Amino acid sequence: MGCAGSKENDAAKQIRKPKPWKHSDAITRAQLVQMRDEFWDTAPHYGGRKEIWDALRAAAESDISLSQAIVDSAGIIVQAPDLTICYDERGAKYELPKYVLSEPTNLIREN
């Protein structure tokens, strides 16, 4: 592989979980899961490539070290280290809401 590449790849952003955030209303885990499923079902319809959306979903649902490997192998360009803004190699933009990446601080714990 070419070493004399762009400097951008050398400074690939390390993925990290989003900063703690609060949902507008306290929600249950079931509601969070439903929101996530709806997002992933509809996201590919807004553009971009399905395989990139699939890789982003896998990355969002994995632990950080695995997320990094998934993103790297899919050739995803991470704009924001928390994965909220990414691009594919063709320059298509992928925006992920925080709720697919981490839980809100006001998640209702059900026992």
UniProtKB/TrEMBL annotation:
The molecule here is called DC-UbP/UBTD2 N-terminal domain-containing protein
Domain of life of the organism in this record?
A: Eukaryota
The record ties this protein, via InterPro entries, to: DC-UbP/UBTD2_N, DC-UbP/UBTD2_N_sf, UBTD1/2
Source species, please?
Datura stramonium (Jimsonweed)
Q: Which residues form the DC-UbP/UBTD2 N-terminal domain?
A: 13-110
Show the segment(s) annotated as Disordered. 1-23
